[in-house]
């Protein structure tokens, strides 16, 4: 039995859920962000790079599916748009 805190596997997600994510994660797809990371960002109500200004970096690091390399990539995207994390 899975605990509620375990990340969802691709096979555990219904087509309806996938369709919902697809409507919300378009910008992340354009940047080539992997599906588990996109789902974690959407679940945190972070739909585009500019939304990252609403969150502290430490809170972002706690999201499932976001490792150091993804955080570094998001920071590059943020720097290009002159966006900073919430203090």
Please write out the topology.
Layout lengths: L14 H10 L1 H5 L4 H9 L13 H5 L6 H13 L7
Could you characterize the architecture of this molecule?
This protein has one domain (15-80): DNA polymerase, domain 1. Helix content is 48%, strand content 0%. It contains five helices and no strands. The radius of gyration is 13 Å and the shape is globular. The N and C termini lie far apart (38 Å). The mean pLDDT is 86.
Outline of this structure?
This protein has 87 residues and is mainly alpha-helical. It has one domain (15-80): DNA polymerase, domain 1, CATH 1.10.150.
Instruction: Report the principal-axis shape.
Output: globular
Rounded radius of gyration (Å): 13 Å
Assembly state here? Answer: single chain
Low-confidence stretches: none
CATH uppermost class? Mainly Alpha
At CATH's second level, what is the architecture? Orthogonal Bundle
Termini separation: 38 Å
- Tell me roughly what share of residues is in helical segments: 40-55%
Count of alpha/pi helices: 5
Q: Would you count the extended β strands for me?
A: 0
Count up the domains.
Answer: 1
Instruction: Write the element-wise H/E pattern from the N-terminal end onward.
Output: HHHHH
- Beta-strand content: under 5%
Summarize model confidence as the mean pLDDT. Answer: 86
């Amino acid at each position: 039995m899975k605990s509620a805190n375990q990340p969802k596997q691709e096979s555990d997600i219904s087509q309806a859920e996938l369709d919902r994510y697809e409507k919300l994660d378009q910008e992340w797809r354009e940047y080539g962000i992997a599906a588990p990371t996109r789902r974690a960002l959407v679940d945190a109500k972070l739909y585009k790079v500019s939304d990252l200004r609403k969150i502290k970096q430490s809170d972002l690091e706690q999201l499932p599916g976001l490792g150091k390399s993804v955080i570094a990539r998001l920071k590059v995207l943020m720097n290009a748009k002159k966006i900073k994390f919430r203090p």
